[in-house]
């Protein structure tokens, strides 16, 4: 932990987003009873938050980042069951009770996919019309009028994870489905990242910020960019790390430049920008192959040695400009 905080301080970072692992605090997924708490996990986050506070770094904490305790999946299929609501609420109460005095910025779920989640919270209280048309009551439980009122306006900021852009056409040739089905396209001229799904499309970022501002009113609910970055695959090895990543610097320069245009020319109220990620890490099904980090991680070394890439030094200089 100390090394990571030291790296953040060297970067000059004033905020850091990370996620708390539900299973690390309550391995069974049940947090209502203290006997099911894992003290080592709870203490770990206390220590980490204390270090962040001492370094003057503001934490942004995500409550759920796709790591559902296996016991709840086995018991009732996890998020497919309404039973998850009470167990998640008990987990959140534990987190707030333990860490609420040091964390002001909370993110409920990682990467909630925009309209499907955003319309109920920031606009109407209900799902978008296209979703209601696509899914029947047996698949998508409808909100009650009371729930719609509870949904609407229940967030203080608009958390945005964004990486790439696609051109979209109506999936129905006669164009009658009105957005219920669609086909995504990419352009051969767009620079492709190591991740096969990720293309660097800076102008798409600006358009997205402008769309969010227009649809959800970022004046009332500011936009926090909680993830944005680009990956490499197969560039460098642990014995010969790729530290000169000018292509990543180009990506951040273009994306942050388009964000600034969205702010200054389009009026989007963007207040936070967080690069993904501080260091190379485990990227889900892609494992350690795809490297998003500003800092190189040597996965073959016992203590996971880290080295600053050129993009880290660029980002550090950039941070100072905006402080």
From TrEMBL:
Catalytic residues as annotated in Swiss-Prot or TrEMBL: 227
Root EC class: hydrolase
EC number: 3.2.1.21
Keywords assigned: Glycosidase, Hydrolase
Keyword Metal-binding: no
Sequence similarity: Belongs to the glycosyl hydrolase 1 family.
PANTHER family assigned: GLYCOSYL HYDROLASE (PTHR10353), LP05116P (PTHR10353:SF36)
Name this polypeptide is given: beta-glucosidase
Organism: Oikopleura dioica (Tunicate)
Lineage: Eukaryota, Metazoa, Chordata, Tunicata, Appendicularia
């Amino acid at each position: 932990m100390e090394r990571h905080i030291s790296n953040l301080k060297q970067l000059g970072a004033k905020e850091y987003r990370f996620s708390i692992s539900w299973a690390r605090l309550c391995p069974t997924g049940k947090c209502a009873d203290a006997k099911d708490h894992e003290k080592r996990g709870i203490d770990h986050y206390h220590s980490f938050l204390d270090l962040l506070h001492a370094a003057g770094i503001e934490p942004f904490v995500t409550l759920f980042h796709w790591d559902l305790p296996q016991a709840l999946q086995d018991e009732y299929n996890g998020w497919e069951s309404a039973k998850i609501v009470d167990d998640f609420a008990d987990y959140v109460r534990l987190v707030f009770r333990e860490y609420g005095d040091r964390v002001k910025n909370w993110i409920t779920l990682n990467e909630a996919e925009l309209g499907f989640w955003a319309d109920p919270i920031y606009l109407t209280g209900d799902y978008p019309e296209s979703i209601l048309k696509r899914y029947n009551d047996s698949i998508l439980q409808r909100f009650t009028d009371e729930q719609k009122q509870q949904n609407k306006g229940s967030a203080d900021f608009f958390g945005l994870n964004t990486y790439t852009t696609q051109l979209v056409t109506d999936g129905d040739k006669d164009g009658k489905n009105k957005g219920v089905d669609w086909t995504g396209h990419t352009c051969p001229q767009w620079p492709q990242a190591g991740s096969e799904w990720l293309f660097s499309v800076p102008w798409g970022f600006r358009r997205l910020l402008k769309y969010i501002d227009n649809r959800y009113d970022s004046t009332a609910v500011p936009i926090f960019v909680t993830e944005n970055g680009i990956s490499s695959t197969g560039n460098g090895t642990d014995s010969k790390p790729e530290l000169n990543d000018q292509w990543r610097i180009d990506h951040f320069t273009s994306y942050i430049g388009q964000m600034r245009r969205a702010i200054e020319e389009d009026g989007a109220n963007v207040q936070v920008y967080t690069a993904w990620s501080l260091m190379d890490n485990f990227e889900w099904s892609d494992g350690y192959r795809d490297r998003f980090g500003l800092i190189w991680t040597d996965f073959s070394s016992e203590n996971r040695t880290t080295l600053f890439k050129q993009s880290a030094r660029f980002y550090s200089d950039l941070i100072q400009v905006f402080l």
